[in-house]
Amino acid sequence: MKLPFSTYLVGGAVRDRLLGLPVTDRDYVVVGATPDDLIGAGFKQVGADFPVFLHPDSGDEYALARTERKTARGYHGFAVHFSPDVTLEEDLQRRDLTINAMAQAPDGSVIDPYGGQADLAARRLRHVSPAFAEDPVRILRLARFAARFHRMGFTVADDTQALMRRMVAAGEVDALVPERVWQEFERALREPDPQRFIGVLRDCGALAKLLPELDRLFGVPQPAGPHPEIDTGVHVLMVLAQAARLSDDPQVRFAALLHDLGKGTTPPGEWPSHHGHEARSVELVSGLCARLKVPVAYRQLAQAVARDHGNAHRALELRPDTLLEIIERTDALRRPQRFAQFLLACEADHRGRTGYADRPYPQAARLQQAFEAARGVDVRPLVERGLTGEAMRSALRQARARAIAAAIKVDE
To answer: Are 186 and 250 in contact (CB under 8 A)?
Structure first.
């Protein structure tokens, strides 16, 4: 369809095509047009903050070229200006990173006024202009891109790193609302290397502001025997990396990351021991999730892993009734999928230590075996005996413990 105005493919689609990655979403900028021009061409207007239009055939998003001006602190304080006079270069200048500030013309040529192609070649994440500092969400977005492109060799440019540190020092990240922090956090958990999201936030000081429970783990020692990496902060990033290796489930990755929060509150006089850190971890997970308005499923799994990861690691030594207690506390019989997530997060914790990345974790098989045995107990004979209430619960627990004992004995 021939359009009476200029359109350009912009942003991630251009970046990913140049990187040789699959292009899934396509966004376009319209230059030299008014809302009435697009509506007259059959586009459907959507969006409340500024005019965005859906193409009548493809459904792709087309936005009028616009500029933004900072009017107040935080990320809501912007005045948006759009008109036929706004140029493509002006529109691209308001974007966050140079690699996202390129456009492609209909003939396939690339418009790159801010050096995005050079930064792609250098594997560099660099801000387009000083206006980056006007929106603290851009720190989170940059950290997320670092998590996405880490294995391709991308690093944060020194001047961008310095700018983010100044933003944090100026209190810009303090204006971020919990919902937006969680939105970017959850997206980052889905990226190939989510540990880089945490690392970038820590490097610029934002982690201490947004996730202080995590930030305080760095510099806290653990016993060198089971933890050759010693530093708890280093450990949890290694655990997150292993969780990403084992599963693409963001809930598993979230639980793995937060499992040791309680070690950050151990009195220094008790280091490197962390007696009772599991209970403190559960409490801290609860507070973090409440503050960021984290969905219930994420919170419940993270609490379960924080509470019982140590017990899971001892599964080969535990009695049948203790194995059953873990199964009951994780609500495995009603939520077997969550139990599978629990086992993955515990395995990530086991592997997330120096020298342990490829070591086997037979504890997961033992817990799964116990779970299957407990789940296989037939309740009908107990019903036929007329048992109810506490008597039924007690008899059922005993039957499940016996089933687990029999399964473990056969296995041994």
So the answer is: yes
Measure CA of the first residue to CA of the last residue in the chain; give whole Å. 71
pLDDT at residue 106 tops 70: yes
Structure tokens belonging to residue 409: 């004995």
pLDDT in tens, 211-244: 999 999 999 999 999 999 999 999 999 999 999 9
pTM, full prediction: 0.93
Nearest to 304 by CA among 266, 359, 254: 254
Query: Out of 3.30.460.10, 3.30.1380.10, 3.40.605.10, 2.70.70.10, which CATH number does the structure's domain 1-116 have?
Result: 3.30.460.10
Q: What is the pLDDT of residues 253-268, one digit of tens each?
A: 999 999 999 999 999 9
Compute CA 99 distance to the chain's CA centroid, rounded to the nearest angstrom: 22
Task: Enumerate the domain spans of the chain.
Answer: 1-116
Give how far Cα 267 sits from Cα of 231, 257, 264, 272, 283, Å: 15, 21, 9, 10, 16
Enter the tokens of residue 205: 């000081």
Question: Which candidate, 81, 178, 172, places its Cα nearest to that of 134?
Answer: 172
CA 186 remoteness from chain centre: 4
